[in-house]
Amino acid sequence: MDMREAIAAQTSFSLRLSSHLLSLNGSAGSNLAFSPLSLHSVLSLLTAGSSGPTHQQLLWFLGCPLASNLVALYFQISNSILVDGSAVGGPCICYAGGVWVDAGVNLKNSFREVAGSVYKAEAHSVPFRALVRIYTKD
């Protein structure tokens, strides 16, 4: 899969998602704002850290045969589109990305490195189970 095919797959994902969300919104005269690129990037990041059936389902949903194609796409996006162009009169696009994972899940350093270097995102461990117990006590 070359870069054009990866971009086409991302575009197809965006159009499918837009169509679905607009069909749910249904009421005439209503507005909808969302970022397909943000959703695609976080699902791509999760794909990089997944394995087995989950990994295969994410690849299928994103329309991409290999996770390495997604990594290449977002490496290109983060190093060309999302760079600060203000020094030469261009825009400075701010993008915040991150993943919160239950503290019981051991994140590999390689996943954290890909998250930071390719996706410009951070992965944090949070004790979700302990927090649920705190907030659900009667």
UniProtKB/TrEMBL annotation:
InterPro entries of this UniProt entry?
Answer: Serpin_dom, Serpin_fam, Serpin_sf, Serpin_sf_1
**All copies of domain Serpin, residue ranges:** 9-129
Q: Which GO terms describe its cellular component?
A: extracellular space
Q: Name one Pfam family in it.
A: Serpin
Gene Ontology MF annotations: serine-type endopeptidase inhibitor activity
Per the record, the similarity remark reads: Belongs to the serpin family.
**PANTHER family given in the database record:** GH10112P-RELATED, SERINE PROTEASE INHIBITOR, SERPIN
What's the protein name? Serpin-ZX
